Amino acid sequence: MINTKFKLNAICIAMLVSTPLAYAEQENTTDVNNDVEVIQVTGIRSALSKSASIKQDSSGVVDAISAEDIGKLPDTNLAESLQRISGVSIDRANNEGNQVTVRGFGPSFNLVTLNGRQMPNSSVLQEAGVSRSFNFREIAAESVSGVSVYKTGKANVASGGIGATIDISTAKPFDYDGFKAFANVKAIKDTSSEKSNITPEVSGMISQTFADDMFGVLLSVSHSERESGRERVGTSQGWVKNRANPDGVDSSAIDTSVNPTGTYWVPWTPEMERFETERTRDNAQLVLQFAPTDNITATFDYTLSRFEEISETNKMTFWFDNPGGTADQNGTLLDITNANDELNFWAWELYEKKENDSFGLNLAWQASDSLKLSFDAHDSTSHSNPDGNTAETIANLKNIPGSVDLIGANFSTEVPRITVDDSSLPGGAYNTDNIVSDLYQRRGYEMENNIKQYHASGMWENLNSGAISAIHFGAMYTDYQIDTYLSEQFSFVDVPLESLGMTFDDATGFADKFSGSDQLFPYIPRFSAQDFVGIVKNEGLFREPDISTNGVQEQTLAFYVSLDVSTEFNDIPIDMNVGVRYESTDVTGYSVKPAIVALNYRHAEELRPVYAAEATPQELEGEYTRILPNLDLSADLDNGYKARFSYSRTLARAGIDAMFPSTTINARPEGPFNASQGNPNLLPITSDNFDFSFEWYGNDGSYASVGYFKKFVENFIGAGVVQGTLDDINGEPLRDPSVNPRPGCPDSSDTPNPACMSQASDPVVTFDISTPDNLQNREVDGWELNGQYMIEDTGFGVVANYTLVNSDEEFEPYNFDQTIALAGLSDSGNLVGFYENDDFQVRLAYNWRDEFLLSLGTEPTFTEAYGQLDFNFNYTINESYSVNFDALNLTDETVRRHGRFSEQLISAEQYGPRYSIGFTAKW
Questions:
Q1: Local structure of residue 334 (DSSP, 8 states)
Q2: Fewer beta carbons below 10 Å: N end or C end of the chain?
Q3: Of the ranges 75-79, 516-520, 651-655, which is most confident?
Q4: Average pLDDT of the chain?
Q5: Distance in angstroms (rounded) separating the CA atoms of residues 842 and 479
Q6: In degrees rounded to 5, what are phi and psi of residue 105?
Q7: Which residues contact 731 (CB under 8 A, 6 or more apart)?
């Protein structure tokens, strides 16, 4: 595995502090005309100089990326561009940026808007749940003119982000004088894909104004195809406490001074799998503008995105049914064995399709020289898998149970060393004659999220003397509606496999960046999950899925007012913005689901709920109000120095699936007996934010800044677990039919066997019931260090930043009662070097993120430190034509995730570099 450690060493310190500050006595001649720090695109040196001057006059803490030239952002992906901003880190899926973390707050704590409008989101995978978090991979970077990151709250900015509110801006025809157009064609080569194909990416825009700029039309389109692959080694369903026969566990090495109960952890499986993914993305936007007078402008826009991704994977694994082994000092079983078991051969298909549509109308009226009024409305929808196709189709094959003498895995290396003793099985475990069918599963969401938003606003500008320079005011109404349909289907089946066409691939060299990879499984199976389900259908064993329907509606009414003040104190220019936002939100959560009749002892590893034939609706309501003030102060000092202070209160709303009122049961014979219930009465998470910064600006675009932030966060949502019973349709507690089972049980027939269902003589089940609740408060603070240095008259320059984030309570590995920890909290840094002249632009950018907690469920998942080096080259042929080359992940970095301790492997993923070459024309 490639080492990704990154330190704020002497070189980085010199870049951040010494170099820019050496010019602290230069005369400052910065020209300021905006209030956003912007990283420009075309002409790196010129863009960064403008960035410094704009940062100098910002109100509050607002960072941005702006496309100075149409169709060109610094990176090929929006999230990957955002990570260059201090305090912003990204999560990657399939080695591509998809969601962002800001100042340690993960995707669910950040709000994404499009042209100031809240955007909907939908998802398909059951394990991903229902999230508000926008996925940046769904929008092509070429269609975006800028992205602003509001790290401190403002009264006129939509609420919903504690980490940040991120606003994506797109172009309008009145942004240009007359005719403007561009076209870009790229060829992309992803080395991670076995198919070795070159895929296309095409984008373009055309804009024109008519009738002396009274009318304007803009159309932008893009089409992208990508083929990618992934080699993964890991475990399934994480590591479980004390899941083994105690007589088979050697716990003598456990350090009882930190683990006094001698708790040990065992995984369900070791596994290795190969993914192949095909993705198609289409984006388009049509913008019409009409200005009948100099004082009135009407804008209509329609934004479309279509996203489709299909992944196929085959997995080689086995299941530890009765594990034993030796624990290390932490309690992790490193060398695990299981006698008389079998291997498992899985096939998976993941299908994701999204249709996003947004219709918007904006009216702007300059009512007088000092008063401007506007009205903005939009109706936006995100619909996942609208064609009804299932997100996940899964098939498993296996050896005859008990036919393999011994299975084992040693987790002392980065990936496990696998042991399989199949010497007594004629032909071996990988002989298809020794493989039989086991199960199939289909599951996933269809989801529709609609947002209707209406925003009336105004600004009064003081054209006379006085400290108050402007007053902003407005009202906003948001109707947020999400409906989800979860499809679940699971059956053990016995079907013939002759027509399946199963083969095996040699796994030599698989995941070879990780230690221990030379002793993985020797083969990976190759067959289709869809073909297996086809056999099930031909045998008449296919079962229609169960559908769970849940939804949430939030209706929010907001009013706000803010003042801009410009004054002096002891001859020091002072700028101030003070505002307040009032919000009232009504929440309704609903579930439509049949009541539970009984538990069915269907399989030695399954207790399945049996539901009534008719579904019954359940609805719960909640409400809350919040007042969100803000104050921004900045002082222009001598010699290019500037000091600023900001205070704001912001909020992030509760997760959607946490508010579904339905009950879900996941039970196995002998346990665990788990259940979960939602809570629509959850309060929003609120944060009181304080920001301080001290900055210096030179006259050549060089600058240095040091910022400190502190957040006092209330109402963190965690899983409150209580033990209790759950009632059946008749109001009686559910009982366990697997204890002292009756003759003929378990029975996997599609029609439940009455003898295998709960009866009055069976023992009552005590469930661990997980219910989300507002449990705790937290404090988060950190430092943001920025430096930018232009080497005069050489064309060379460097940009560096580093963010340190801390919390008053982080995850404690031996605290088994901890239900809340801040996911996404981590340090991060960027180092960018560039050179440019009239013909060439060259940029080398390194981004690093420290280890962070990815999620905290029953057991935690950590993502280990990751650093990536990217390269960009652009050659300008003439004013109209240019060519560019991009190389991502040059050093072939890998991703590794673990559980409570580093030895508890969750996932080790290996990808490869990605290259693209493109040609751009503009007119």
A1: E
A2: C
A3: 516-520
A4: 87
A5: 46
A6: -105, 125
A7: none
Burial of 237: CB neighbours in 10 Å, binned 0-12, 13-18, 19+? exposed
pLDDT confidence of residue 794: 87
Calculate the CA 471 to chain-centre distance. Answer: 37
Which residues, listed in sequence order, are joined to residue 918 by a DSSP beta bridge?
186, 884
For residue 406, what are its two tokens? Answer: 């011994």
The pLDDT of residue 32 is 33
Please name which of 324, 216, 316 lies closest in space to residue 264, comparing C-alpha atoms: 324
Could you give the CA distance from residue 350 to residue 344 in angstroms, rounded to a whole number? 19
Sheet (strand 146-150) strand order: 37-39, 62-66, 146-150, 164-169, 110-114, 117-118
- What single DSSP character describes residue 239? E
β pairing state of 324-327 and 249-250 = parallel
DSSP 727: B
- How many CA atoms lie less than 13 Å away from 750 in the CB half-sphere? 12
Element containing residue 530 per DSSP (H, E): helix 529-538
**Cα 864 from Cα 906, distance rounded (Å):** 11
| Tokens, residue 400 | 């005859």
Highest mean pLDDT among 416-430, 672-686, 721-735, 827-841: 416-430
Q: Does the pLDDT value for residue 479 go beyond 70? A: yes
- From the list 631, 650, 633, the residue with the least C-alpha distance to 780 is 650
Give the C-alpha separation, 718 to 687, whole Å.
Answer: 16
* 776-798 residue pLDDT tens: 888 999 999 999 898 888 889 99
Across 521-557, b (16+ Cβ under 10 Å) vs e yields: bebbbebbbeebbebbeeeebbeeebebbbbbbbbbe
Q: How many CB atoms lie within 10 A of CB 688?
A: 16
Taking only the tens place, the pLDDT of each residue in 796-806 is 999 999 999 99
Side-chain-side CA neighbours of residue 267 (13 Å): 29
DSSP 254: -
Cα atoms found within 13 Å of the Cα of residue 451, Cβ hemisphere only: 25
d(Cα 575, Cα 36) in Å, to the nearest integer?
Answer: 15
43 pLDDT more than 90: no
Give the separation between CA 608 and CA 677, rounded to whole angstroms. Answer: 17
Instruction: Categorize the per-residue pLDDT at 39 as very low, low, confident or very high, splitting at 50, 70 and 90.
Output: very low
Residue 899 to residue 917: CA distance in whole angstroms: 39
Q: CA 283 to CA 143: how far, in whole Å?
A: 8
Q: Which of 113, 152, 155, 148 is nearest to 471 (CA)?
A: 155
Residue 347 banded pLDDT, cuts 50, 70, 90: very high
Tell me: pLDDT of 670 over 90.
no
**DSSP letters for 44-85:** HHHHHHHHHHHHHT-SSSEEEEE-SSTT--SSSSHHHHHTTS
Handedness of CA 112, 113, 116, 120 (dihedral sign): negative
pLDDT of 820 reads 72
887-894: average pLDDT: 91
